[in-house]
Each structure stands twice: as C-alpha cells, then as structure tokens.
C-alpha cells in the first residue's frame, strides 16, 4: 500500500451530495484509477453540503424540498450498516438536509461509520491539516437569531433550521491559528470576482442580477474568508464548477482585495464593500497567508464528472512540523491519520458555551445567543483547561462512538408524508459535553419529552 502521508494529502472534493453516496464512491474509485491511485489511498472525501443524511422516511419530512422531489437516497444503508463508507468522509450541511439529524449533532459527530459531520460550525484535525467548516446557507432574517427550531418543524422552521447563525460564525472568528482547508455550502460573497466572472455571469445571468442587487453569496462566509485566509476553500450550492484565487495585500482583508481588482464590471462597483477607514481588518486575521485558492463544484450527477468531483494531492501545510501539530500525528495501522478534535476550537467552544441558547423542547422558548462578547483572555483561559484536561490526557482523538438510535429504513412501510419524527438524544453529543465538562444544552431524557407523542404535524410547505 502507498504510504501517502509523507507526500501530501490525497483528497477528493464533491460539491452537493444530494444523497447519492453509492454514485459518489463508485465514481471516486474510477477517478482515482485515472491518477494511478487505489481508492484506499485517499485520505479524505469532502462533501460540501446537501449531503442528505436521511435515515428513514420520517427524516424526509424534515428536509426542505417539495414532496415530489423527496428521495430516500443511499445514506440509510450506511446508517444501518448495510453499506460501509470506503473512504473517511467529512461533510457539512447545506439547505437540503435532514435538519433534525444535524441538530442532534450540533457540535459535530459521526453520521454513520466513517462519515463525520463538522456540525453547525466546527474545526477538526487530520494529521497536520486543520479543517474548518460552517453548515447551512446565509439568510439575513435568520442570521442574528438563536437556534430556535425544534421538532415538530412547521413550514417556516423547516427552512430556517438550515440557516447560518451569527453565533456560529463568531465562534470561528475567534480562531487565531492558521486554517488549511475551509468549507462552506454557499459561496463567500464576491468571491466570483477573483475568477473568470465574465464567463460566469454570461452563462449564469441570473447570478449577475443577484450580484447587482448585492444578494449573491454569503457575507458571513466572506468575513470568515477574510479572517481565516485558508490555503483552500471549497463550496457547493451554486451547481457549477468555478475556481478563483483571492489575493490579500498588506495584512488587509476582502474589502481591500476587492478594491484592488481592475476588471470588475462597473455596475458592480457600487455594491462592493468599502475599505475600512482604519485600513485595518475589523478583527486580527487568523493567518498571514497572502492568498486562498477557492473551488466550487456542481451537484452529483451533473455531466461531465469533473464538474462535481475533484481529486487532487495537497502539499503539506507550512505549519506541519510545528510543535502544535505533534498531538495529531499518530497513524493508524493502515498508515493513515485519525480525526482529532482541535485544541483551540475546544477552547472556543467552552468559552462561548454560556452564550449558546436553543429552544426549550416543550415550550419552544429561546433566548438570544451571543459569542461576540467573549474576550480573547477567556479563550486563553479555556485553552489552558483544554491543555490540562484533554491534550495532556491524550483525549484529542475523536472517538468512534457512533451507534444507530433512530429507526432504520424498512422497505414497504407506510409513512404519512406530513408526520414528523421524534427528537432523539444523541449519545455522541452527550459524550462531547462530558469531555468538555460543561452542561449539555441538547439533553432530552427521552424522545417523548422532546416532541410529545411525535404524531402528525401540520402540513409542511417546503421550498427547493
């Protein structure tokens, strides 16, 4: 077998998964062969949202798609154990998800064996590589709100459940160490201007109209890009393949980089953000990197394959040999790295935990969430706690603690298309809170406590 860890990271990236795991893994095997690799040589498969972790037919009723577009997909086989993911698979959420299952794993966790969800926002380590992600899509009306959606979802909450929240973005903005790979479902706003936007706008004129109205892409993702400056940023959502290189200058952020572009359509200049008068970014950047390579990919099933799948070898990150990387470098018997929690992210999670509020499972009352006012000194204090209680005790490796707890798909069963599932307490989330020794905001003693009898909900009107 190839011991690829010494030569870089062999990674495959998919845009939108749309529940087609069998197609993804079968195509991946073929694409690897074209590079002279075996599929098992891959380190990671990354899927940039619309993964659709549908365990059973009731989960379909928690997905924001019209009824005639609802498809069970392949995931249920991987959840039940009938199929096994051949490659360690990392996923984020998009706007077509079984949001109830993602809510159980708000802080991330194994959706199925060898398939790991990064959570509403999350950072993990794979060897020396540091990977950050934010799930969902940006919606201005939902952005400042807490996570107030609980089962049973109504026609509004089934949509807002997948909207990005300021609380989660602010947590990522607390990062002060470099990130190598960042993931978002929708694109960072204005990123298309750093690539061949003329062709993009010509082939997608409705996107140009959205750009003129300042409604294209995610402004919070752009803020994260400006702060994190990862080596690579991968996205899906727009159902097209697009590459760009964002060049940063003089320690300044996206606003400055945009103003330096000389080929922006004149109509767009009026809506671009201005450089802050201070000539300094609003928050200190997490990285001194001078550029980010952006790549967006199409949905699975588009033709040709290279529109939705990219297989490549990434060079070692510049900080691979730093002392901070040492706790993450142990290899498995197969010669690969294991997924680890990120030390700094655990500290941020602890520091921001008092500001996380979710809806009460019975009354659905929720207080505002905030991560803005957490000072850097507080994160430093919690990092010392993480070092003493997790790092020094060698507890950073993410445990393989997946266990199915929701009903698995049963062919031939009859399910009401309006019925909502029960809310299940997830033991992975409980164990994560135990690790951090903080109160579990997602604890429910039983499904019935969270969702009554789990009977029929009012008809759910869904958008695409």
Automatic annotation (TrEMBL):
Domain named Lariat debranching enzyme C-terminal: residues: 283-442
Keywords: Hydrolase, Iron, Manganese, Metal-binding, mRNA processing, Nucleus, Zinc
InterPro entries assigned to the protein according to its UniProt record, in alphabetical order: Calcineurin-like_PHP (IPR004843), DBR1_C (IPR007708), Dbr1_N (IPR041816), Metallo-depent_PP-like (IPR029052)
UniProt keyword annotation of Metal-binding present: yes
Cofactor (UniProt): Mn(2+); Fe(2+); Zn(2+)
Subcellular location: Nucleus
One example GO MF annotation: metal ion binding
Predominant cellular place of this UniProt entry's protein: nucleus
Family: Belongs to the lariat debranching enzyme family.
Name the record gives this protein: Lariat debranching enzyme, C-terminal domain-containing protein
């Amino acid at each position: 077998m190839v011991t690829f860890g010494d030569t870089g990271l062999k990674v495959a990236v998919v845009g939108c998964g749309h529940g087609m795991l069998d197609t993804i893994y079968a195509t991946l095997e073929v694409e690897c062969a074209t590079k002279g690799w075996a599929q098992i040589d891959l380190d990671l498969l990354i899927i940039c949202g619309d993964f659709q972790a549908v365990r059973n037919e009731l989960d379909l009723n928690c997905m924001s798609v019209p009824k005639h577009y609802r498809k069970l997909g392949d995931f249920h086989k991987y959840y039940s154990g009938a199929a096994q993911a051949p490659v360690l698979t990392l996923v984020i959420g998009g706007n077509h998800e079984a949001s109830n299952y993602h809510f159980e794993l708000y802080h991330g966790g194994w959706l199925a064996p060898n398939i790991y969800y990064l959570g509403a926002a999350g950072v993990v380590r794979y060897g020396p590589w540091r990977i950050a992600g934010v799930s969902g899509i940006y919606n201005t009306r939902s952005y400042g709100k807490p996570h107030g959606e609980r089962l049973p979802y109504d026609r509004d909450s089934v949509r807002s459940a997948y909207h990005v929240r300021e609380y989660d973005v602010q947590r990522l903005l607390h990062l002060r160490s470099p990130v190598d790979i960042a993931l978002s479902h929708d694109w960072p706003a204005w990123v298309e201007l750093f690539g061949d936007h003329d062709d993009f706008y010509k082939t997608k004129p409705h996107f140009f109209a959205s750009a003129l109205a300042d409604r294209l892409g995610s402004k919070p993702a752009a803020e994260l890009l400006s702060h994190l400056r990862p080596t690579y940023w991968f996205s899906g959502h727009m159902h097209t393949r697009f590459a760009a290189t964002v060049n940063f200058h003089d320690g300044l952020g996206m606003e400055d980089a945009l103003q330096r572009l000389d080929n922006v359509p004149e109509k767009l200049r009026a809506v671009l953000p201005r450089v802050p008068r201070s000539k300094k970014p609003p928050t200190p950047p997490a990285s001194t990197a001078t550029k980010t390579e952006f790549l967006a990919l199409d949905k699975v099933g588009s033709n040709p394959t290279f529109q939705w799948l990219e297989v490549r070898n990434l060079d070692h990150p510049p900080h691979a040999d730093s002392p901070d990387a040492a706790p993450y470098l142990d290899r498995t018997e197969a010669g690969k790295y294991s997924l680890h929690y990120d030390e700094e992210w655990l500290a941020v999670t602890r520091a921001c935990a008092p500001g996380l509020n979710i809806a009460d499972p019975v009354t659905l009352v929720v207080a505002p969430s905030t991560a803005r006012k957490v000072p850097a000194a507080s994160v430093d204090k919690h990092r010392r706690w993480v070092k003493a209680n997790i790092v020094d005790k060698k507890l950073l490796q993410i445990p393989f603690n997946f266990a199915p707890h929701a009903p698995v798909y049963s062919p031939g069963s009859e399910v009401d298309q309006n019925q909502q599932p029960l809310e299940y307490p997830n033991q992975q989330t409980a164990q994560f809170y135990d690790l951090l020794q903080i109160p579990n905001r997602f604890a429910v003693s039983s499904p019935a406590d969270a969702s009554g009898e789990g009977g029929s909900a009012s008809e759910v009107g869904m958008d695409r």
